Fold this sequence. Notes:
Helix content: 10-25%
Strand order of the largest sheet: 5-7-10-13-16-19-21-22-23
Radius of gyration: 18 Å
Amino acid sequence: MIPVIFWGATGHALALRDALDPEHVSLVALFDNRPVPSPFDDLRVFEGPSGLVEWEHLYAGDRPIRASVAIGGGNGRDRLSILRWLEARGYPPVTIVHPRAFVAAGALLGDGCQVMALGAVCANSKLGDAVIINTKASVDHGCVIGNGVHIAPGATLAGEVVVQDFAFVGAGAVILPRIRIGRGATVGAGAVVTRDVPDSQTVVGNPARVLIANISKKEI
């Protein structure tokens, strides 16, 4: 049995625990930077770095402990930063694939990735570190996903899409083949993206348009 800790104790932790294989992986501790109630009856939440130190003095296990960051949304930079911090403290990242997800044999998943229930990562796709492929999201053949990216529930990436670091693709969005989503960009829920999205921009609608200061829109 592999012991795992989660950093992040809100909604995404619930879904992530459900993705663990109970025969091989056990969640042994829960941490958050804020004082939040535990989503689980059997685990308390330890707060911040001092909470980690406190737990280390209490934990009596003797096996190497792995770590996963249960922080969703457009918080990819935070997710990756915390993952690296935990790794430096001796908690190597674990990649979690829900038993009812699909990952093709030729796909490559980076450190600390999460593929949730009914998610799909298809042939020759490559995921960076701390990537979330959320419930029913589909990443088709040959896609390249950067570090800290979150593909939200039900989103569809057609073949050979490139999503650069820390981008967020909203629930139900559709990205057409060979599109590039720029670094730190946000694709709104339900958007249909037909052209490349610039770095740090937000796009919404069908066809997707860039939001400019919430005043005007420019079709892309």
